[in-house]
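Fold description:
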Amino acid sequence: MLHKESLNLLRQQIPIGARHGVNLLNQTNGNVEKARLLFEAEMIQIITNKTAVSSDIARKHLIIHNYDIAQTIASIDEGRFTLSQRILRKARNNKEEALALIVQSIESTENIQRKFWLPLEELGHLPPSVYCLLVLHDFLSYEDWESFSSAIYFHSDLVASQLETMLDLPQVAYHLRAAKKRSDEIYQQYKGRMEFGIESIIANQLAADAEFSEHEKGFEAERPLIVDRLYSMVVDNVGVFP
């Protein structure tokens, strides 16, 4: 192999593949020092193109991370962006994943102790947009875990208020309140009855009730919009998130 000895010397100095190393040595007529400088220049150019930082900053981080591109970019981003900003950048194609990761970061930063669900009544001191995310993310998670007919009794007044005031979704809040009202009416019809299987009887009536079903379908149709509005709220107020 041409430049075999020079290639060995070059690879002792920098982490470069054989083919790449030979190519650089061909350009420098076997000069190891010039090949190394070409390699460094290439790596710096890649980093500056991807991050828009100065050459000096790119060189500094590349040296620290032994010219590993992924680690170098992550290191630069860590210094430039908050945790939430990094999450938004990394999970920009999956809004629900981004929101879930930011909720986890809030819990960690604020040292929030879960009892499966968040202690929402204890978190009202948090910035409004942070609190809104915690409330609505927990509600959507609860609905996924249980069902809509159960979720309407999970902090529903608080959830409806957040939908109206923070996300400007009064129509979604309406479906939530109306579904709970209809559910209460059906439960009232069976008040005092203690026979075996009464909960299943009520659940079946709820499932068959046209009014309740209308509001459940209305809520579910708007659920993607809740996620979109939450995501936009986080982006617009990212400075108050971890």
Observations:
- The longest helix spans residues 210-236.
- The mean pLDDT is 91.
